[in-house]
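User: Could you go from structure to sequence for me? I need the amino acid at each position, not a summary. Structure tokens:
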């Protein structure tokens, strides 16, 4: 008697079987797929994904505190670090790590995911904003740089008014003195970070037997 080969993957799904794992695999695509972000953001995306997997929180426990904890570990104290990171990269990493988060947030409250996404994007913008002002402080010669929180706040406030930037005033209204503390902390971290200078690449050794030059 000839037996037909069975293909469980083509057969009907048994009753009660969960399809969440299948849907997650189809959402993420093959392992060799490139990250769903711009090429310049792929390294940051992969590092964020690694940070989410290294964190103790499971995908269904992902919240604002977990994301900002991962961002804190992700940070490298150097100029322009946060401004090189796009908020969309953070959101894509969140979606790939916790694909059910959007539906869960929407079921929990009306507009729950929209509020979560707005908070994440605002957080990235805040970090970029603080970084810009930290670099402005570092651009001042050390002997003329304002010392202490009060002097730094006054200098930043005057500088923003001179430039016509009212964001600093709004930031102070939202965050208060903690914004100045974060600016000073970020400036100090950038100042103390080791500076690595990349030299010219080493010449690769040639393979094979060297040929004699004809005289």
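Assistant: Here is the amino acid at each position, in order:
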């Amino acid at each position: 008697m000839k037996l037909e080969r069975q293909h469980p993957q083509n057969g009907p799904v048994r009753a009660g079987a969960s399809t969440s794992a299948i849907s997650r695999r189809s959402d993420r695509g093959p392992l060799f797929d490139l990250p769903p972000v711009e090429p310049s953001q792929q390294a940051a995306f992969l590092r964020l994904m690694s940070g989410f997997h290294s964190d103790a929180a499971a995908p269904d426990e992902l919240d604002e505190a977990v994301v900002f904890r991962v961002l804190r570990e992700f940070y490298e104290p150097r100029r322009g670090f946060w401004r090189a990171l796009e908020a969309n990269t953070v959101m894509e990493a969140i979606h790939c790590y916790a694909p059910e988060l959007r539906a869960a947030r929407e079921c929990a409250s009306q507009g729950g995911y929209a509020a979560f996404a707005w908070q994440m994007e605002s957080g990235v913008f805040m970090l970029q904003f603080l970084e810009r002002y930290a670099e402005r402080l570092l651009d001042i010669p050390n002997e003329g740089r304002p010392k202490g929180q009060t002097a730094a706040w006054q200098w930043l406030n005057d500088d923003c008014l001179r430039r016509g930037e009212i964001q600093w005033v709004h930031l102070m209204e939202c965050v208060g003195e903690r914004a100045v503390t974060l600016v000073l902390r970020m400036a100090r971290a950038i100042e103390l970070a080791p500076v690595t200078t990349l030299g010219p690449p080493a010449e690769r050794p040639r393979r094979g037997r060297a040929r004699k030059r004809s005289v």
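One structural detail worth keeping in mind: Residues 112-139 form the longest helix (28 residues).
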